[in-house]
Structure formats: C-alpha cells, structure tokens
Amino acid sequence: MQININVNGTDHSLDVEPRRLLVDAIRGDLGLRGTHIGCDTTSCGACTVLVDGTPIKSCTMFAVQADGSAVTTVEGLKGADGLSAVQQGFSAEHGLQCGFCTPGMMLVSTALLEENPDPSEDDIRWAISGNICRCTGYVNIVKAVQWAAAAARNGGEEG
Amino acid sequence: MQTTTHHQPTTSPEIGGVGHSIPRVEDARFVQGAGNYLDDVNLPGMLHMAILRSPVAHANLVSIDDSAAMALDGVLAVVTGELMAAHNLAWMPTLSGDTQAVLATDKVRYQGQEVACVIATDRYIAEDALRLIDVEYEELEPITNPQRSLEADAPLIRTDKEDVTDNVSFTWEAGDQAATDAAFANASKVVTLETHYPRSHPSPLETCGIVADVNPATGQATIYMTSQAPHAHRTLFALVAGLPEQNIRIISPDIGGGFGNKVPIYPGYVVATAASLLIGLPVKWVESRTENLISTGFGRDYYMTGSLALDDDGRILGLRTDLLADQGAFYSDAQPTKFRAGLFHIVTGSYDFAAAHVTAKGAFTNKAPGGVAYRCSFRVTEASYLIERLIQNAAYEIGMDPAEFRRINFIQPDQFPYTSPTGFIYDSGDYETAMQKAMDMVGYDEIRAEQAAAREEGRLVGIGMASFTEVVGAGPAHTYDIAGLKMFDSAELRVHPTGKAILKLGVKTQGQGHETTFAQIVAEELGIPATDIAVMHGDTDNTPYGLGTYASRSTPVGGGATAMVARKLRDKARKIAAHLLEASPEDLEWEPGKFSVAGSPDASVTIQDIAFAAYTNHPEDEEAGLEGVHYYNPPNMTYPFGTYIVVVDLDSDTGVWTVRRMVAVDDCGVRINPMIVDGQIHGGLTEGFAKANMQWITFDDDGNCIGSNFMDYLVPTAWETPRFELGETVTPSPHHPIGAKGVGESATVGSPAAFVNAVIDAVAHLGVRNIDMPVLPDRVWKAIQNA
Question: pLDDT at residue B641 above 80?
Fold first, then answer.
C-alpha cells in the first residue's frame, strides 16, 4: 500500500505491506535507527514516537495507520539552535546509561512538557510509566525532565 | 585503610581525574538517537534468521517436515539439528563444562528450546516460514522443580550423556564441616531459615542478537554480537566452530544493557554463523522479547537452607548452609571453573566467626538453562540475601535489635585484611561506620519508636536492614578463570604527538560509562584532560585481550590495568622530561600534567610537551613514541560493602506493602565519577526492589514459562519504583592502584534482603519469619493469616 507520512518535517511516500509495523517502516524503510525495539508487546516504550504530537508505541501501530500523519522521532528533537532542553537535561542529570530506552523516554517527556510545562514529580513518573528503563531506576530521568522544565521556563539556558 | 566520608579529587576540574562528576561522553550520540546497537548493523545482501522453538517442555523429537517452509518465496534455508550434526555443531560446550544442544536432535528439554532456524531475505518472511514447519513431538513427563528431579523415579533428562543415571548436575562443598559441627554442638541457640531465591531474568531492554558475516572468499568472519566479553567469545568461537582465531573478529557495538544476560554464547549465534558460512552472505538474528525471556540466561533459582549457631551473648559461632540449584536442562552457569556454586561461599558476609560449611547440589529440570550472574558477582546475591535474612531472624530469636546484633558480630576495622572461614581475604572495610550513617540518615530510633506506637494503633510498620559485603573484581589468575581463560584484564594507551590519547580496553561497557570513567583514570595518572582521551572497546581486532565486563570487574581489573599502563607511560615521560629539561630523572617532581625540577618550579614541561617530544625530540637511548599496554592480574578481589535500610507500611487487610523510605549507604572505595556511581546504585536498588516485590519467572506443571513477556514478567516502572536516599563512606581498597572497588552490582546484591526484612519486620511480632520472594500481597496476607 502507498502511504504518505511526514517524518521530522520531511514528507515521505512509502509502499508498505499492510501488516508492516510503523517501527519497521521507520527503522527499515526510512533508516532512522534511533527508534528502538525492546519488547514487541507495547510494554516497554523503547519504540515510542510522536504521531501528530501524541506518544505512540510504534511496535503496535501499522505503518498504514500513520498515513497522512506527522511523526516525530528522536532524530527530530534537535532544533536549529542545537539539542532540545529535554536532550540537554538527560545528559546534564545523567538520565541515561545504556541509552536504549532514552529516545522513547525523551519523546514522552517532550510530549509531557508540551502539555504541562511545570509537572510535579508524580506527574513525571506517571507520564513515563509506560516506558521501561532497566539501568537508571528512573531517579535521574525524573531529574532530567525537571531540568528541562526549568530550562524552558528560564529561556532555554540553565536548568 | 582509613574510612572517610568523601574522596577529595587531586586533579583540577579541567583535568577531570578521579572524583570529578564530569558529564558522560557517551551521551551525545545516545540523546540524538545515534547509538549503534546490534540491530542497527545492516550489511549488503544481509539475510534474516528466525528460530522455531519447542512449545513443550520435555518430548522426544519424532520428525521435522520443512518442505512447506522451504517452498516459501524468500526462504533460503531451514537449518535443523540434523544439518548441524552433519557439521559437528549440533552441540556446543557451556561455560560450566557441560554441553548444550544448539538445535535439538534427540529430544527437547525445555519450552523455548531451539528446534529449527529459517534463513530468509526478510524477517517477516522468516517468521511466516516458521509457521509452515511441521514438527512431531512425543511428550514426556516435564520436571518443573529440582525436588522432583532428584526423586528416584524421575525421568532422566540428560539421555544424551553416557553413564549418567540421575538428574544431578553438580555437587559441591566449601568450608570446614568438622569445625562447623563443633560450633553447632556448642551453641545455646540455633536459628534456621529455609527460603527460595526465585528464578529471575536480567532482561536488558535490548535483547541479544548477532550479525554474522563470513566472507566465503577469504574465510574472514566478522561477527557483530551483543557481547559482554568479546575476546573470550572470539576464543570460544575458534574452539567450537574450528575457525582460525586470526580470521575471527568480534565487534560488540553499543549494548543496550547486559546485566549478565550477554555473557553466554547462545545457540542462535552458532546457527547464524554457520548459516553465513554455508550461504556466503551476512545473517542477522535478533531475539524477540519472548525469546529472550524463555531461552537465554536466567539468574538465581536457589533453594537455600541456612542455620546460625549462637552463644548466650548473641555472638555467632558458626554457619551451615545447604543449597539446591534449579539448573534447567543444561548446566551452563557462567562462573569460575573452581567454584560450582559461584562465590556463594562468601555467605559469611560482614560477620566475624570461625566456622562455616556450605554444601550445594544442582539438579537438571525441564527449564531454560542459565544461571548467569544477573547483576551479581557469581551467586554473591543469593549468599548476601541468605545471611542478611538469617541475621535479622537471629536477632529476633535472642531478643536483640537487628542493628545491635549486627554491631556485636561485625568484622572490626582492625581485623582487615580478614580471612573468612571459607577462604576469602577481605581487603578493607568499616561496617559499623556505614551502618551508623544509614541509621542516622533514616532516623532509626525514631522510626523504631513510631513502629511500636503504630502497633498499638493496629498499623503495621516495618524496618529492614542489610549490611552486605560483596566480593567483586575477579580476579587473581591463580584462582579465577572462565572456561580456562584466566581473569586478568588489559589496557593499551597511546598518547599522540599533540598530547591527546586513545585508550583501548579489554572490558566492554553496556551502559556503565567506561568511555568517561576510564578516561578519568588516565587523566588522574597523566594529567591529560579526560576530554582529550578517546576510549575504544568491544572490537577484538583493535583492543587488547580481556575477559570482559560482568561481576563488577571492570573497575577492579580493567581500571587497574588502565592506571598501570598510564604509570608505565609516566615513567617514560619522566625520562623524556629529564632530556628536555637537561636534568636527572630522579630530580624531577610530578604534579598532575607536568614534571618540574625539584627546587626550580619554573623549569617544567607539560605532559603535552613531553608527548610532542616523544615523536619529535626523543632521547637517543629511548624508543620513540609514548604508548604501552598492561595486562593486570589483580592481587586480590575487592570487597565493597554498605548498609541499606528500608521502611515499609503494610496493609494487613490486603498484604500490600509500600516503601516509605529507602536509605542506601555504599562504600565502594574511591569513586571515579560520583555521578555515575550514584546512577549505578539507583539502578541496582531498583532491581533489588523488583525481585523483592514483583519480578520472577515461574512455570506451570506442564513446564510452560509464566513470565514470557513484559505483561507477565513484571519489571518496575517509574510509578512503582521507590525514591532512594543515598549516602557514602569511602574505605579505599589497599591493593587497587587507585583504591577503587566495583559498584555496579552492590545495590542488587544488598537490597533484596533489606526490602524483605522490612516486610518481615512489620509482621515479626505475629511470629512470621519468612515469606519467599517476590513478597506478593497474597503471600503476605496468607503469612499473617497463618501466623
């Protein structure tokens, strides 16, 4: 089937099997390897992308379902003036170790801060609770999101 | 060694040596989605493999019909055990001297065992083809626990072995039985605990995988693999597959977590490599999560009985333990050859007594093999759990507060180096200082008072403690090996003319941040800024030989090698500096980053000047260049320790317990990068909580794995994970070049007992002394009802 999707601001036209998963289209057809596969069962969130701004686990969505949508992957987080506040926060607060969950974590965090620029710790923990991290115990991921929220409030510089 | 509250850095922040929380260099690629994990490796013409696995736990393999699968467009091959046997590859050796089926030939011995592999042009096609393979099984009685396995009428699992008449995989003992019997004969009280440390799975977020690329023209095998030990794996590939070792290059790319899961060699690796060799194209295989959970290296599964002999004053006289290991269908524990139950005999823990005796037996069952050291130094976790649970029960028995009971039985600081009754030589420690710090942080006396008041009101509050000692950093080559390979490790350091450097390691990170911390060790020793040092690891063609990263050995062993090679270069730098300064080498003084003439501080040269001179103006009697390699054989293991305290509130109506406080004081010696150390502890505490609270793999009576995906195998999310409060003391290792000990696993080793002890403490006044992990609400509720 022919589908049209906009990924990170670029329009793509793809010919995909109806059963092809969105994550395989992103990784295989578009070569965007920052979106990871961790569980195949919608449990871990490593494959999280934003579809029209909403976090979606791309292992459980067919590529054809994204026809006509705008998709943001980790490769789309960096802006013209450098890394996003969320990306900077994850590094500043040591919010990642092996890095495998990090793209999904950063995308749900980005969506959270869009909706709620000043989240409480519970807000953050709830927002990222669909994403599993096996390394950090989430402590520094929470701090990373708080850092990004503070940076956004302060004009994008200091956490 | 003196214990302090904090290690003060000796280098400037610009140099960023030991003790500085510098940001990680790894982060730049990971936050941009630019890591290079195994599944990101794609080669021209690459084929994809999928594995057909047994749906039953124990059955004779009657027939395999792959004709329909072979007829599917895009399928190049269906590999069966028969085909592998024709190449003498149907079986492979395990890390514990057993053999394991690569693809089943005679029977299947666990659900999920590899039966056939499809090689196709696309993973979707390969998965389609699996459904077209028709396998006939003749089912046998599945053995789902080791107790049944050892009964006289149990069916024999290892019918592949000649002269084997039972299901015993190993027997082992350590310690002194006579001395221990005497201690128990003299005891005024004996406290016994029977408990099960359940089967768990490391389940790193990235599953295991391989891209095997054997060039048919040259015979060169380039193998990309999720490997925690690429050099050892290269040698094992050479020995198993008969490939010349110089033709094998293992590349372990970025690894999405390991935790012991990526230490063994799995059947899929062997088949993918054989398929690439036979077909002449690269073959990729990446596990699904279910494949990962049901077939690759699990951890734990020890049934443990422990008894402490006590005198009238509450002093421990001796310890006796007996273990029954559920080994799965093949004995494939990853552990040093000498020790059949890993380092379980560290079970005497932080306590000073004269006699201990450990007996252990392993039993084959119809479950996946494994026994990997899941975030643990070879069974230290089970040992630490047993002694710390026993200690609390013993304190109850003699009517003493568990903290006080620990205090009077601790090994004292002036007893180090301390030889344990099972033969470990503890390097340094100060257990009471760490415990007191944790008690102060949590407000121990106040919470004990609140607990008493709460009981009056009918509320249940529990306070649990664990004062663990770990043994990590395998290890001295005279004692420790994996499959015969001695457990040294290595570092190669090259300083370039401009004073920048590249460090190449035999160990391999899976997220621990080696590219940052190992640069900091060089910065400490040579004064070259850490940011000027690139760290390379994981590629066997470009790094010196090492045994890899597991069992918290990277800093104790690879870190030792790094410090020592840097010191070799500093010795040479001194000679070059003397040449440049026209002084005698003995007259030079070193400070981080430069040599100066004693008494004439203005007469100095920087390490960068020296590096340039090494290639442009070196002394005539010296070789040019500034590089070296060091193979470090540690004189001893290191012994990190700490005290963890957990406070829980328990709802007696539902059995649900919630963590109110979790205080963790760790002493891992000198901390190279405190930020990274704290991160390691956070992660380890979370895994300890997971095992205490929710995370286990079990089986039904037919041998079906319960826990084959993340909906049944519960790993904690941010919502369930408790908040942690960290503290530190610093007791350097006296034998490690920079005084560091390992830390990656301490929290997983030490914390399960603290969580479980807290729950037990909440209901101890009712007479409850044990609830097996995971301490699920229904188990708590039943324990209360039965009390």
Answer: yes
- Partners of B108 in the β-ladder: B59
The answer to whether the CB atoms of B205 and A97 lie below 8 A apart is no
- At B440 the three-state DSSP class reads helix
Find the CATH number of the domain harbouring B91.
3.90.1170.50
Interchain pair A139, B723: CB under 8 A: yes
Asked if B27 lies within 8 A of A32 by C-beta distance, the reply is no
Whole-number average pLDDT of chain B: 97
**Residue B3 within any structural domain of the chain:** no
C-alpha–C-alpha distance, residues B285 and B268, integer Å: 7
Q: How many domains does chain B have?
A: 3
What pLDDT shows up at residue B6?
87
CA B645 to chain centre: 23
Option in A34, A135, A139 nearest B511 (CB): A135
Told to judge if B228 belongs to the known catalytic residues of this protein, a careful annotator would answer yes
Q: Which residue, of B295, B316, B344, is where some domain finishes?
A: B295
- Is it the case that residue B481 has pLDDT exceeding 50? yes
The strand ranges marked E within B485-613 are 485-486, 489-495, 501-505, 533-536, 588-591, 594-597, 600-606
Indicate whether B554 and B441 sit together in one domain. Answer: no
The residue to which tokens 């190279």 are assigned = B672
Q: Does residue B341 share a domain with residue B289?
A: no
Q: Which one of B100, B228, B327, B510 is the catalytic residue?
A: B228
Contact A102 B510 (CB under 8 A): no
| Chain B residues inside the 8 Å CB shell of A138 | 682, 686, 717-718, 721
Residues B655 and B782 in one domain: yes
Same domain, B686 and B712: yes
DSSP classification of residue B740? B
Confidence of residue A156 (pLDDT cuts 50, 70, 90): low
> Inter-chain contact A20–B124, Cβ cutoff 8 Å?
yes
Looking at residue B289, the DSSP 8-state letter turns out to be H
Quick one: which of B487, B482, B630 has its CA closest to B553? B487
Q: What is the mean pLDDT of residues B568-583?
A: 98
Task: Identify whether the C-beta of residue A38 lies closer than 8 Å to the C-beta of residue A27.
Answer: no
Q: Domains along chain A? A: 2-76 (3.10.20.30), 85-153 (1.10.150.120)
| Length of chain B in terms of residues written | 787
Please report the number of interchain residue pairs, chain A to chain B, with beta-carbon separation below 8 angstroms.
Answer: 168
Does this complex have an ipTM over 0.95? yes
Side chain identity, residue B149: S
Residue B679 pLDDT > 80, yes or no?
A: yes
Q: What is the distance in angstroms between the Cα of B323 and the nearest Cα belonging to chain A?
A: 29
Which residues from chain A sit within 8 angstroms of residue B292, using beta carbons? none
Residue A157 has pLDDT above 70, yes or no: no
- Residue of B646, B752, B650 lying closest to B200 (CA atoms): B752
User: Which tens digits make up the pLDDT trace of B591-634?
Assistant: 999 999 999 989 999 999 999 999 999 999 999 999 999 999 99
- From A87's Cα to the closest Cα of chain B, the distance in A is 6
Q: With CB atoms and an 8 Å threshold, state whether B124 touches A87.
A: no
Domain end among B275, B295, B315: B295
Region A25-33: mean pLDDT is 98
Residues of A in contact with B259 (CB under 8 A): 134
Task: List the single residue in A with minimal CA-CA distance to B257.
Answer: A98
pLDDT in tens, A39-70: 989 999 999 999 999 999 999 999 999 999 99
- Could you tell me if B521 and B590 lie in one domain? yes
pLDDT over 60 (residue A159): no
CATH of the domain at B543: 3.30.365.10
In one-letter notation, the amino acid at residue B296 is T
Q: Where in the sequence is the domain holding B107, given as residue range(s)?
A: 38-140+207-255+262-295
Task: For residues B53-68, give the mean pLDDT.
Answer: 98
* Domain match, B459 and B496 both: no
